[in-house]
Specification:
CATH topology: HIT family, subunit A
Distance between the termini: 65 Å
GO molecular function: hydrolase activity; nucleotide binding
Number of domains: 1
Number of strands: 5
InterPro entries: AP-4-A_phosphorylase, FHIT, HIT-like, HIT-like_sf
Low-confidence stretches: none
Pfam families: HIT
Protein name: Hydrolase
CATH class: Alpha Beta
Radius of gyration: 19 Å
Keywords: Hydrolase, Nucleotide-binding
Strand order of the largest sheet: 1-2-3-5-4
Strand content: 5-15%
Mean pLDDT: 83
CATH architecture: 2-Layer Sandwich
């Protein structure tokens, strides 16, 4: 085999297209930092994040049974997840205090996102199990995705790219400041 680079037609040729490179997404695509198994000690990021300072773990708020954290691979700016501290995969396995606080933090997430970013609507839900689309199926987490009128522009449809106008640390700080008191 030749060690010379393979030429690819069109590479470097002006074609009037703008390109947004998102190399940070490769970590998600390749499954980097994805747990190696389903146990609590198998590299679960949702078990590790609460051990970090809030800024490093992108934690917006902490409760006694759950915490709210920004998604590293957001669908929209401000995409939060409400996560129980306990390593549990199924919603039916939550105890009553966990269930109640998960619901309360979901409600507070919407209030904080409305206050901090003027969110006009939300997609809220869980993917339970890998077949349902859970990226980390072993540790339950509820998504809270803010939405705005017109936020479905051409980029996701044509370019398969989301444009996020703010760095995650800045978003975390805004939402932490807007988080409602209990």
């Amino acid at each position: 085999m030749s060690s010379e680079p393979i030429e690819q037609a069109g590479v470097g040729v002006p074609d009037n297209f703008q390109r947004l490179w998102t190399p940070h997404r490769m970590a998600y695509i390749k499954g980097e930092n994805k747990p190696s198994g389903s146990g609590e000690g198998d590299g679960c990021p949702f078990c590790e994040i609460p051990k970090m300072p809030d800024e490093d773990g992108l934690i917006v708020a902490r409760g006694s049974a759950v915490f709210a954290v920004l998604n590293l691979y957001p669908y929209n700016s401000g995409h939060l997840m409400v996560v129980p501290y306990r390593h549990v995969a199924d919603y039916a396995d939550l105890d009553e205090p966990e269930t109640a606080e998960l619901a309360e933090f979901t409600k507070r997430s919407t209030l904080a996102l409305r206050k901090a970013s003027g969110a006009q609507g939300f997609n809220i839900g869980m993917n339970l199990g890998e077949v349902a689309g859970a990226g980390i199926a072993a540790h339950l987490h509820q998504h809270v995705v803010p939405r705005w009128g017109g936020d479905t522009n051409f980029m996701p449809v044509v370019g398969h790219t989301k444009v996020l106008p703010q760095l995650l640390r800045e978003t975390r700080a805004l939402l932490a400041d807007a988080w409602p008191a209990s």
